[in-house]
Amino acid sequence: MAVKKILRMGDAQLLRQAVEVTNFDGEELKELLADMRDTMQALDGVGLAAPQIGINLRIVIFGVESNPRYPDAEPVPETVLINPVITPLSQTKEDGWEGCLSVPGMRGLVPRFTRLRYQGRDESGALIDRTASGFHARVVQHECDHLDGILYPMRIVDMRHFGFSSELFPDSDVQDE
Ligand code: NI
Hints:
single chain, Peptide Deformylase, three-stranded antiparallel β-sheet, 30% strand
């Protein structure tokens, strides 16, 4: 178990199409997930995708009870999601501010589907099948985008709504990520 270095935007490894997990039995997956949890916790992240630590597999973790970086966010269940499939349940999108551990110190306004279904497997290979809305749905879309080489700045519609957290939100104590 270890806190891993997070790759930052500009690193070509973040632009790859990640590969499906086929082996759920080995120690390797357990160790990778432990590293991902340690890394996310150490950096106070809401979610982390395996490609962000240089592992090109379709694995994301996310979850938040309360997070100083997202003080208004509703809780999201602690989840390990492997080989995810997302199906929007409404074509409605909503703008919301996002940050990313691979884009430290910045925030951008990103449109995301407000309601979706996500399916995948947990660390033991068991099926996950949930519906989510609001912040939960946003986090799932953000993390799963990492598996297709997409970083949130690529989703920003109006680049005037992209900048340094400290300039966009001077009065809040939003932490640098
Ligand atoms: Ni991210």
